[in-house]
Amino acid sequence: MRVFVTGATGLIGSAVVAELLGNGHTVLALARSDASALAAEAAGAEPLRGALADLDVLRAGVTQADGVVHLAFGNDFSSPEALAKNVTEESAALAALGEELVGSDRPFVTVSGTPQAPGRVSTEADPVPTDGPVGGRGRAVTAVLGLAARGVRSAAVRLPRTVHNQGTGGFAGLLTGIARRTGVSGYPGDGTQRWPAVHALDAAVLLRLALERAEAGSVWHAVADEGDRVQDIAAVIGRRLGLPVESVPPQTYGPLGPIFATDQPSSSAHTRQTLGWEPKHPSLLEDLENIQP
């Protein structure tokens, strides 16, 4: 099928584009800059110039596609206001994409984060949060799943806190960037909180499977590692960068501080059993060995 992909040139998106092209699909890629357009072309996709905020461009992309994979999200996590802007922009984009798909029975795959389940590992049956720093995102994804009742084969692939490739990406990548800036490989609290993770190439396979096979209104977990201790993540980062490893205040991480400090392991047992998804690429702790000093 011809697939419209937002966020097609990012760490996850580039893996998804390659996975789709490698399995007989063609890709129309949203490209917000000349550089992104060139990268999309080089990967074998057709670029469509526009940003996530350009709702008319998004609608035009849908009209040219047999299905949609939405991955784009703002990269500014510097303040609560910036994070809220990211969420608001994505929510409007999801609403525009969804409305254009109503009644078409075409697939619409979007992403969110894996939820927290206090005292246990979260599963696909747990709801995403609809309040807190990213509650708006939970509400928007829930609305996308609700489009199943309006003739859209909608599905949500929940991505873990770190989607990684060659030692970069996700929350672990943010820890690495902060360590480089501050000279300390830090972790919030006692560091025993656990974060799930997945390699970007494995996540790309699941996103393709959801596009091809997922039932309307279904939820899937792209989780390979159920939960790595943040202290262990910071230890690898510190060793690779030659920096001390220490506990730091949660406010070090700005608006993401409360999320970073939370224990949030997650399972993908249902996803693996139902879709036959089986991660094959290096774990997060193995992949972080690729960090360059």
From TrEMBL:
<feature type="compositionally biased region" description="Polar residues">
    <location>
        <begin position="263"/>
        <end position="274"/>
    </location>
</feature>
<dbReference type="InterPro" id="IPR051783">
    <property type="entry name" value="NAD(P)-dependent_oxidoreduct"/>
</dbReference>
<feature type="domain" description="NAD-dependent epimerase/dehydratase">
    <location>
        <begin position="3"/>
        <end position="217"/>
    </location>
</feature>
<protein>
    <submittedName>
        <fullName>SDR family oxidoreductase</fullName>
    </submittedName>
</protein>
<dbReference type="Pfam" id="PF01370">
    <property type="entry name" value="Epimerase"/>
</dbReference>
<dbReference type="InterPro" id="IPR036291">
    <property type="entry name" value="NAD(P)-bd_dom_sf"/>
</dbReference>
<feature type="region of interest" description="Disordered">
    <location>
        <begin position="113"/>
        <end position="136"/>
    </location>
</feature>
<feature type="region of interest" description="Disordered">
    <location>
        <begin position="262"/>
        <end position="293"/>
    </location>
</feature>
<dbReference type="InterPro" id="IPR001509">
    <property type="entry name" value="Epimerase_deHydtase"/>
</dbReference>
